[in-house]
Amino acid sequence: AGRRVIAHLDLDCFYAQVEMIRHPELTDKPLGVQQKNLVVTCNYEARKRGVKKLMSVKDAKEMCPQLILVNGEDLTPYREMSYKVTELLGEFCPLVERLGFDENFVDITEVVEKRLKELQQSGCSGVCVSGHVYNNQAIDLQDTTHVRLIIGSQIAEELREAVCTRLGLTGCAGIASNKLLAKLVSGTFKPNQQTVLLPESCQELVHSLDHIQKVPGIGYKTAKRLETLGVRSVCDLQAFPAAVLEKELGVSIAQRIQKLSYGEDDSPVTPSGPPQSFSDEDSFKKCSSEVEVKEKIEQLLRSLLDRIYRDGRQPRTIRLTLRQFSATEKGFHRESRQCPIPPHLIHRFGKESSNLISPLLDVLMKLFRKMIDVDLPFHLTLLSVCFSNLKDLPSSKKGSIGFYLKQMSLPSGSGK
DNA sequence: TGGGGTTAT
DNA sequence: ATAACCC
């Protein structure tokens, strides 16, 4: 069962770290990254003073009047640094899966096996753990599962060290026998530390979660439905009759989340490779005329075309997403329409993007009119454009393998 | 609540 | 096309 060794790496307050690298003079000051009216993340100087992630700007400045805010609505610097991290990890080991911009899973099973054999050949029997052991559990060097995980902790330390010396970023790592456990354990010692989980402490780790929604994979909706059934804790979910759960959530979800509640997760580390979509969005208080919509969409389109051009692949699908104001329900009621990109336009993605803007803007406005009757009043609070279904150029080596090593250094273009 | 992403149905 | 999940 527990044959694999998985590392989860989680950068510390990633956007704030990137901003501190961009503005070294801010490094020892309380710093927050702002998007619209929110402080989406902040450095540890700010956290000491009570600022929390996703706090409103108003509350944050009340907590910490000296707080310095930088605007982080343009994700370009974070996205670029994020891929540098994934690329670096990929040098150690091909199995790297991204989760958001600031987390990566690495399946280090094969690297561990190699080191284990080297160790056995050199006749050395002493191995030393790097970082913390969850629950302070005693290590048994006779237990090869323990030894593999200890070697995993040493590899994770090397990964964090490489990320720090080569990119200047700190982060946490968790090492365990599957992705779920590696992710859960990585947060136990917080900034810039790492923790390994030995199998005997698995149940204590999952039971340390105070609510089922803390289990990665059980989100808001599922947690609400489980509450209806009286299931609130990990214990409740473990003990709940499987047949009833399957009828309520469907066999697939029921079986998966019940296994998660025991700390079981056989999902593989799936190499992410290059992105499968490129999107750009903007939110606002109000957008209510077609002219305004067209202007906003054009802005989104310009920066997206620049990104696609740098990527080198050609998208086949374009999508427009919007959110309409609704006083009732604070909810996230988004709708979208998508269509194939007209085939005669596709070849132009390899070149200057300026002559693509006008025809694609026409396509997007048609999609807009499929959702909104422009003769009636409307009130939008978000617009988003997405390109997906990306295809490699014929016979050019820009595919998933060449991706990471490619062109990290085109001139920085017309971002917004 | 922001500005992204992915997979399953 | 939407709905769920992740950050």
Provide tags for this entry.
single chain; 416 residues; Alpha-Beta Plaits; DNA polymerase, domain 1; six-stranded mixed beta sheet; four-stranded mixed beta sheet; 20% strand; disordered C terminus; DNA-binding; DNA-directed DNA polymerase activity; POLI polymerase
What would you say this structure looks like, in words?
With 416 residues, this protein is α+β, with helices and mostly antiparallel strands. The protein has four domains: 6-13 and 77-203, Alpha-Beta Plaits, CATH 3.30.70; 15-73, MutS, DNA mismatch repair protein, domain I, CATH 3.40.1170.60; 209-262, Orthogonal Bundle (DNA polymerase, domain 1), CATH 1.10.150; 277-391, DNA polymerase, Y-family, little finger domain (Dna Ligase, domain 1), CATH 3.30.1490. The protein is 41% helix and 20% strand. The strands form three sheets. Strands 6-7-1-9-10-8 form a six-stranded mixed β-sheet. Helix 4 (76-92) crosses helix 6 and helix 5 (109-121) packs across helix 6. The longest helix has 24 residues, at 144-167. 32% of the residues are buried. Residues 396-402 and 411-416 have low confidence and may be disordered. The protein binds a DNA duplex (9 and 7 nucleotides) through helix 9, strand 11 and strand 13. Belongs to the DNA polymerase type-Y family. InterPro entries: DNA/RNA_pol_sf (IPR043502), DNA_pol_Y-fam_lit_finger_sf (IPR036775), DNA_pol_Y-fam_little_finger (IPR017961), IMS_HHH_1 (IPR053848), Rev_trsase/Diguanyl_cyclase (IPR043128), UmuC (IPR001126).
